Amino acid sequence: MKVYFIGAGPGAVDLITLRGLRILQDARMVLYAGSLVPVDLLKYCRTDAESVDTAKLNLDEQIAYYARARASNIDVARLHSGDPSIYGATAEQMRRLEQLGMTYEIVPGVSSFSAAAAALGVTLTRPEVSQSIVLTRVSARASAVPATEAIAQWAPHRASMCIFLSGAHLKKVVADLSLHYPLDTPVALVHRVSWRDERIHRSTLGKLLSEVRAKDWQLTTLLLIGETLEERPGVESSLYAARFTHRFRRAAVRRRRIG
């Protein structure tokens, strides 16, 4: 018996990994957060699988299902939105499983930040623009952000930044970012990326609040900021340059013209 923590992806059913889908199809018990994971994924479950929406269950109630699965010697597919390693609230479940002597495995998934970049048609790293990506969020009742990791502390780096669950605190987020990012820095709001009701708003840091109503971007909204959001001619990576040599390819030799 094993519990599989599966990254279900950001929303679109076909963004789950092949490994995650295979495990989902075989599991006799499936736990999922109905508020975050698309119910359409359940169509891939076996007909005799027990599916449990954990949105209204506390941690002890969820662990009780794991214990019941162990008693029946059946595997559990635990679906988490995005990738389980990012804001997945999986660590406390794993600790409980370890205390109970139960084995588990983590199956990575597509995070909403990478899905958002894809929806925007951008790369979040570009030569001599930004080679770092900050993944962060604002403090909330369920989980506080350490003071040393506040948005205002990351902003001086002016790297590409992806701020999860930012919609409910949009004014404060913009104020903190404006301490260091120029007001003409590109920003994007992405709500429920890859879902049928996905919404995207592109703007600049200085204009954003005058163009949107914060209450229209609640809950699962991601704010992205950085110069990489504006695709424009710039320094290209040397990786595929004809005159660049690396361990798998020699640089092309340019012939000198004579005469």
Automatic annotation (TrEMBL):
Tell me if Methyltransferase is a UniProt keyword of this record.
yes
MF terms from GO for this chain are: precorrin-4 C11-methyltransferase activity
Domain named Tetrapyrrole methylase is located at 2-208
Q: Which UniProt keywords apply?
A: Cobalamin biosynthesis, Methyltransferase, S-adenosyl-L-methionine, Transferase
What Enzyme Commission number(s) apply to this enzyme? 2.1.1.133
Q: In which pathway does it act?
A: Cofactor biosynthesis; adenosylcobalamin biosynthesis
The family database entries (InterPro entries) matched by this protein are listed as: 4pyrrol_Mease (IPR000878), 4pyrrol_Methylase_sf (IPR035996), 4pyrrole_Mease_sub1 (IPR014777), 4pyrrole_Mease_sub2 (IPR014776), Cbl_synth_CobM/CibF (IPR006362), Siro_Cobalamin_biosynth (IPR050161), Uropor_MeTrfase_CS (IPR003043)
Q: Which Pfam families match?
A: TP_methylase (PF00590)
Superkingdom to which the source organism belongs:
Bacteria
User: Which CDD domains does the protein's record reference?
Assistant: Precorrin-4_C11-MT (cd11641)
Could you state one GO biological process linked to this protein? cobalamin biosynthetic process
Enumerate the NCBIfam families for this protein: cobM_cbiF
Q: Which family does it belong to?
A: Belongs to the precorrin methyltransferase family.
- Name the chain's protein: Precorrin-4 C(11)-methyltransferase (Precorrin-3 methylase)
Q: Which organism is it from?
A: Candidatus Glomeribacter gigasporarum BEG34
Primary gene name: cobM
